[in-house]
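Illustration 12: Lipoprotein.
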Amino acid sequence: MKRIQYIAIYGGLIIGLMGCKKEVADPDSSNPNVLPPLTHEGKNTFGCKVNGEVWVAYAPFTVGGPMAMEGNFSDVSGNFNLRGLNKERNQSIHLWLSGLFDVEVYEIEVDGYDINDLRGFRNSSENNGCLGEANYNQDLLRELFIVFLDKNNRIISGTFEMDLVNPSCPGDTVKIREGRFDWRY
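Figure caption equivalent — predicted structure in C-alpha cell form:
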C-alpha cells in the first residue's frame, strides 16, 4: 500500500512540475550581441559599440572571481570610477572623472593624471605588435553624460562616447559609441 502511495505522490509531483512555466528573462538582458537598454534602476548593465561592434560587460559568476562591473563613487568628493569587463574577450573599458555632483554632461579630464588613469580601453587578448590599450587624449572626444543620479538609492546611470588612441601604435584610434551604463554603487 505504501508503495502505491509513494508512486502516486511522486507521479503527481512530476506531472505538477512538468506543468510549471519557466519565466524567460528579457531577451536583450543577457544577449552579448545587443546593447542593454538605458535604465535608471541600478541593474548593473554596461555596454557600448567599440569600432562599430557591440560590446557588453560580462563575467561568468565565480566565487571571488572578476565582476562584470566594478568601481566607486564618492558623493562628497564627486570622484567617479567605473570599469566594465568582458571576460570572454579579455577586454575592459574604464570611465572616470572628478567633480560629479549632478546630472549633466562631463568631459573626462586628461591633464595631471597618471598614465594608468588615462586608459579608457584595454584588450589583453590581442597582440599585433602594439600594446592592447587605448588612452584618453586631450584633443579627442571623451564625453560622459550622467542622465540619472540617485544618492539615496545609490544609483548612477549615464551614456558615454569617446575616441581613444593607442600610444604604441600612432594612428590606431578606438571609437566608442552609444555607451550606456546603469550602476548601483
